[in-house]
């Protein structure tokens, strides 16, 4: 039986495997204007619009109906599917997929427990499992186990977007902005943002996320680390250089933070994703 991998549009994957996925888009709003993530709004246009617009963007989760359209197509084909979504702690998209999947016995929904490239790492792993002949039920179990190995370290350049999204209080945002505090965050097993520590100044914060990866004590000379940035490529290259020269990381792949995640984290966001024993 053919097994499809369905993801939502926050799941960032390398271009060479994108054609093997079915993508259900979330929605981005700039005031009254509405865009489908990755369909009518790509990453580059999003950051241009972010600078141009007088209003901060908001987002909407993918709907059960959007997932149901794909599930009906899978059923007509006689196949099955595994759905991999952004962490339930970050979006209601996982719940939408579960609601739609309740009517099907050939659809398995997995909460990635992460987002962006973190979920993309799992998507690439899932395709490798399918290439080995794994069935849908087995793949869902394998992803639920593998997601525990995805580690995320992130920082934001401004606290305004986290404040607007209800992640921090207005008072915390004001004080943090005045003191030029940059929180270094990680994502726990339920997709919640956890403040690990705070650093003053942009350069120090970039060095801090690289150094934190080093503190975790992994053997990185044969590993790939993924950097996700909010339209700040030079900062990403600065972190890449530290990871390679100081910690011996073999390969660093750099990508833009997607529009949905960028709506909540803002420009200047930097995140490091890797497989390890610590979260």
Find the structural class using helix and strand composition.
Answer: alpha/beta
Helix content: 40-55%
- Poorly predicted regions are 167-179
Cα shape:
globular
Q: Alpha-carbon distance between the termini?
A: 35 Å
Major β-sheet annotation: 6 strands, mixed
Order of helices and strands: EHEEEHEHEHEHHEHHEEHEHEHE
Share of residues in strands: 25-35%
Figure out the total of helices: 11
CA-based gyration radius: 19 Å
Mean pLDDT: 87
Q: Give me the count of strands.
A: 13
Question: Strand order within the widest sheet?
Answer: 10-9-8-13-11-12
Key words describing this protein structure:
279 residues; alpha/beta; 6-stranded mixed β-sheet; globular
Description:
- The strands form three sheets. This protein has a six-stranded mixed sheet with strand order 10-9-8-13-11-12, sandwiched between helices. A four-stranded parallel sheet has the order 2-1-6-7, with helices on both faces.
- Mean pLDDT is about 85; it is low at about 165-180.
- The protein contains eleven helices and 13 strands.
- It is about 40% helix and about 25% strand.
- It is globular, with a radius of gyration of 19 Å.
- α3 packs across α4 (about 95-100) and α9 runs parallel beside α10 (about 235-245).
């Amino acid at each position: 039986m053919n097994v499809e991998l369905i993801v939502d549009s926050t799941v960032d994957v390398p271009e060479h495997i994108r054609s093997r996925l079915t993508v259900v888009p979330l929605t981005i709003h700039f005031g009254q204007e509405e865009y489908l993530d990755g369909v009518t709004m790509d990453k580059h246009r999003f950051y241009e619009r972010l600078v141009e617009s007088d209003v901060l963007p908001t987002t909407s989760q993918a709907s059960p109906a959007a997932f149901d359209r794909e599930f009906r197509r899978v059923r007509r084909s006689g196949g099955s599917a595994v759905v991999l979504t952004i962490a339930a702690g970050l979006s209601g998209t996982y719940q939408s997929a579960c609601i739609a999947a309740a009517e099907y016995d050939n659809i398995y929904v997995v909460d990635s427990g992460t987002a962006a490239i973190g979920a993309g790492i799992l998507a690439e792993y899932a395709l490798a499992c399918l290439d080995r002949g794994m069935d849908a039920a087995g793949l869902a179990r394998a992803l639920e186990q593998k997601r525990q190995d995805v580690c995320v370290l992130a920082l934001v350049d401004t606290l305004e977007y986290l404040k607007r999204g209800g992640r921090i209080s207005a008072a915390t945002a004001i004080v943090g902005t005045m003191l030029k505090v940059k929180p270094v965050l990680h994502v726990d097993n339920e997709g919640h943002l956890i403040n690990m520590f705070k650093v003053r100044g942009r350069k120090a914060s970039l060095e801090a996320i690289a150094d934190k990866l080093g503190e975790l004590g992994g053997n990185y000379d044969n590993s790939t680390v993924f950097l996700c940035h909010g339209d700040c490529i030079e900062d990403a290259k600065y972190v890449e250089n530290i990871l390679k020269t100081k910690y011996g990381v073999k390969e660093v792949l750099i990508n833009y933070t997607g529009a949905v995640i960028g709506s909540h984290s803002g420009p200047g966001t930097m995140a490091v994703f890797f497989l390890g024993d610590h979260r």
